[in-house]
Design goal:
This protein is α+β, with helices and mostly antiparallel strands. The protein has 2 helices and 14 strands. The strands form 3 sheets. A 6-stranded antiparallel sheet has the order 2-1-13-12-9-10, with no helix packed on it. The protein has a 6-stranded mixed sheet with strand order 11-8-7-3-6-14, with no helix packed on it. Strands 4-5 form a two-stranded antiparallel ribbon.
Length: 193
């Protein structure tokens, strides 16, 4: 890796939170448990991307930058996939057009050009991002309210249909079947003998 720090823009589809992104300093450890991820790689402090899902290993993958090129290395039990193919444990090059799959997460990565980051210098001990498992976002609340409204409307519709059917099926207390038959659309005629 060159002497200048490299920043990597990660974007991913979170199954519960939608599209997310983070900018981290390379190298980057990806996993489910920050405590189980290493703190250093080849003498360099690691940034951490925590993806909170049971299909993600505690320490799942490593993204490194060598000669301004991204590399991904699988460290997991479940596998890391690059464009649908398993990533080797030796590492593979990664381009901005590639898609990584780690558990249910689909991730894209790109190196930010020098000067493209308008960020504060990252403290290696604090350079981590946690995805999932946090507080619910505003979209979750809106989706919940819309879902509750739809359920309420469906419940009222079901109640109205059931009430109508029960009303039609109820026998006439006067014993007069002619009004019931007329209600059902039938005409009954009686002839006198």
């Amino acid at each position: 890796m060159s002497g200048e720090p490299s920043f990597v823009q990660l974007s991913w589809e979170d199954p519960t939170m939608g599209t997310r992104s983070a900018t981290l300093q390379a190298p980057i450890a990806i996993g489910r448990d920050s405590e189980q991820m290493p703190k250093q790689n080849s003498g360099q402090a690691l940034s951490h991307l925590k993806l909170d899902h049971k299909q993600v290993s505690r320490y799942h993958a490593l993204i490194t930058v060598t000669n301004r090129r991204l590399y991904i290395t699988d460290k997991s039990a479940n596998g890391t996939f690059l464009n649908g193919r398993a990533v080797s444990r030796e590492g593979q090059p990664l381009t901005t057009k590639d898609t990584l799959r780690i558990g249910p997460f689909k991730i894209t990565a790109s190196i930010l050009r020098d000067g493209a980051t308008n960020a504060t210098e990252l403290n290696p001990d604090r350079s981590q991002y946690t995805a999932g498992g946090g507080s619910s976002g505003p979209n979750t609340v809106v989706i919940g309210l819309v879902g509750a409204g739809i359920l309420l409307i469906m419940g009222l519709g079901t109640w109205a249909i059931a009430s109508g059917l029960l009303e039609r099926a109820r026998p006439d207390p006067s014993g007069d079947t002619s009004s019931r038959n007329v209600r059902q659309g039938e005409i009954e005629t009686t002839s006198a003998l």
